[in-house]
Structure formats: structure tokens, C-alpha cells
Amino acid sequence: MEGGKRAEAGTSSGVVGEKQEKLREMKSEKPPSEVFDDKDEDEDAEDGKEGAGIVTAGFVPGPLLSLKEQVEKDKDDDSLRRWKEQLLGCVEGDLNGQMEPEVKFHSIGIICDDFGEINTPLPVAENQSGVLFTLREGSRYQLKLTFTVLHNIVSGLTYSNTVWKAGLQVDQSKGMLGTFAPQREPYVHTLDEEITPSGVLARGIYSAKLKFEDDDRRCHMELKYSFEIKKSN
Q1: Spatial CB neighbours of 126, under 8 Å, sequence gap ≥ 6
Q2: Which of 44-58, 73-87, 194-208 is modeled with the greatest confidence?
Q3: Separation between Cα atoms, residue 117 and residue 110, nearest integer Å
């Protein structure tokens, strides 16, 4: 499948993009001018050439601190403490000293000109474990995720989406979502636009695996799903 171009999603542009750079700097204690490179790694025999995605060249994460520790680190400086609370998006329940961040995914959506938008709650119900959505050949579409970050900053959240047909890997896309702090409202992120293939051989049912990891290689979600490509009218 061919990757298309799109406008940057809300959490990766403008003021929010600057906020993500500051969050990453606070968590890692590295300057925001770090250079990111792509690097492929084999995960297991089943996935073949499915790589680990996007990692940082020469990057060593700093010590993991809880939100409470990060806020209280400068508790004597009221202005800096308030700035950190605003930047981190702290909610009172997350200042509990828990170290590990948690990303909770609420829904996955498919956006396509053919039918608009369809959203499926996560985890996928057993009666929906078959074909999650159907597309026509040559269609442009995007996947849309809604998620919440809990307990701590999640840094360098990346995704990989691998697709198989008849047991053979036919496509893989990877990307960086960014760095996110806990907040009351869910984040909404739309992945890069894709184009379904065309032709007789392209039609049929595909299986796929969508995986999300942070820069500490924590896997926050691994979703296996199926979709179908049908003949265009």
C-alpha cells in the first residue's frame, strides 16, 4: 500500500509541538536538538522483518522520575513549580509517586471518503473480532486513535502497522506520535494517510497488527485486526 501525505495532527504541530520538546527534555535531561534516526530490528520470527521502528541515535534516557518527584524537585520556586504543573498537565490523582507511564487506548477509527468515519471502542469485542472495516481498492484512508496517558510522561511514543495477505507480509508503516503528559482529556491522533492497492490480486481479506511503544521499549498496545478490500464500482 502506498503512503500518502497529510497535514500534521494536532499534537505534533505549533505550540503543542514545542510543549512535546520541553516534556522530552525534562524527562531525558537531554537538549531538544537530539537527532532522530530510523533503525530496523528483528522482533521475532513470526513478524519477519518487522522492525522496532523509530529510535534515537546515541540517545540514553535519563533516570525515570515520578510526576510527584518532577514537580517537587523545584518546590521552593513557586513560579517554576506552577510552570511545571501547567506543562505536565498534572491531575491530582497522578501525583501518587507511580513511576511507569500508562497509555490507555479508548478507540480506533477509520476515516475514508467512501463512508466518512467509523469508530470502534477498544478493546475490540469478541463479536467484532472478524473484519473490522471494508475498503474499496484505490481508496485513501487514515487510522485514528483516541488514548489517555496516566501516571507519568510517556516519551517518544511510536507506532508500527504491519499488514499480511495469505500469510505474506505486504506492507508496513511506522511513525512517531510524540511525547505526552497526563491530562484529563483524551488525546486524539490521526496516523498517516494510506492508499489501498488496486487490481484483482489486491482484493480480499488482510490481517494486520498495530503496535505502540515508547522510547523505553514499553509496549502500550498491540492490536490484531482484519480488514477487506473490495472491487471499486
Answers
A1: none
A2: 194-208
A3: 6
Instruction: Give percent of the chain with pLDDT exceeding 90.
Output: 44
Residue-level pLDDT at 42: 42
Q: Cβ contacts of residue 32 below 8 Å, gap of 6+?
A: 21, 22, 24, 25
What pLDDT score does 25 carry?
A: 59
Select from 1, 2, 19 the least CA-distant residue to 10: 19
